[in-house]
Amino acid sequence: MGAMDSGLSWRPGSSVRLLLLFGLCQVGAEQGILHAVSNLSSTLVREYCVFYNGDWMPFPKSLDNATEYPLQDLTSTILCDSTDVPPDGIKDKLVVVKRGNCTFIRKAQIAHKHFAKALLIASLAGLSPPAGNKSDFEKLNIPVALIDYHDILMMRKILGDHISGALYSPPVPVLDYSILIIFVIAVATVAVGSYWSGMDEHGSGSSTLSDSRPQSNGEDKTKDSSAMLTPLTVVVFVVICSVMIVLLYFFYKWLVYMVIGIFALAAAVSVYNCLATLLKRIPYWKCKAPYVQRRIEVRLVLLALFSVTLSAIWVVYRNDDRWVWILHDCLGVAFCLNFMKTLKMPHFKSCVILLVLLLIYDVFFVFVTPYFTKNHESIMVEVAAGSGSTGGEKLPVVIRVPRLVSSVVTLCGMSFSILGFGDIIVPGLLVAYCRRFDLQTNTSNIYFILCTIAYAVGMILTFIVLILTKMAQPALLYLVPCILVTCAVTAWSRKEMKTFWAGSDYEVLDVTSDALLQDDEPSWYE
Questions:
Q1: Is 423 annotated in the active site?
Q2: If you ran DSSP here, which 8-state letter would residue 288 be given?
Q3: 61/192 same-domain check
């Protein structure tokens, strides 16, 4: 999910936290296609993105209904005066001119006066729908659109100097199948991360205080380095998120590199932690490094090098959209899994506070901030779309999947469906709490299963709203009610609300386990 200029139909992205958008943007009727064909070879065909004003003159909805005209390249002129028209005229031509100081209406009037059939304005300063007084254009009968000047240069290089072109604007597909892939990734990550969050508790037998003591020095019972989010730390976390997104809005072009660096480091650590958990279950290749005071397993050293290498490759090729999205998504899934494993909620009360505050956060920065900003722009959307970046850098905290259905949207640069990490992690913290509560109370994973299903239902509901409105939506607006209501109804129907709200004795267990492990803690080394 490069950045587009203001005034365009923006491509949604995801901010440092938290925004689910699937590339379903406000396309409307302002994006179209130039279908260019070489007159020397009908097999040489290219299509290019154009922007037009649907209020002036609508484009045909299909190529079959579009009329093809000879294309005349006049990009050496700006067509602000009739003297810019060549001696042989522009009658019955699709004319391409440079963007200049005069208005689009003025260019269209001159082209119409000399019987041109369509007008393309080549721009070096980005694309936006042509603007102007509609009443002035009503007297004209000529399509007008903006095209990138570099596309004109590329078109001449590929198709030659003898080209014909047709303008049309096909409807945007209602559903792109890439969101189904994102749906599977999101639900699977939440389920696996939540299940993993409870594995250490289940494996260490911490469901009762009586068997919290390690069995022997040889058995790996080390306490994982997890952190509990209390109500106070939840509030601090949300405040930090709010401050961060405001800082990114004003200082994006500098802070984006800090976020990229943090993600690269966190991704390397996450990949190591995820794969190390699997590797330690394999009883082979446990050789130790010689001549080291504390002999470390060689396979873990190699795994660390592998994790750092993956992260370094991503940093180098992060803007190569052809293939790096696969690596990026793998790192992103590992990041989400490790985050849900490391950060734990002690009780349902903390979960409610976190989810409600972040829901308010999402809604405020998407829907309310346009009333306060100078250009009436959403802070969340502007940060997500990377509008403050001069180098095309995007915040890396999203899952990205290429669009599988070719359309005007993919042609105009919005070729990915995306999902913010926060819309996986934040609900996932509650699902992980449900998993640990099931283990603590021996409830056969009923909370975990129902909460995971509720998350999937909330995601589907988000898809439906996105498809119907074709507008950016804060996903937590739909995910939070689904999972909170499901958990509350389940606890209430099982008459366990008091215990579920206050949590079991996780914090007591952590303190007791620390005390028990102080005298006889097993070592990671031999």
A1: yes
A2: B
A3: no
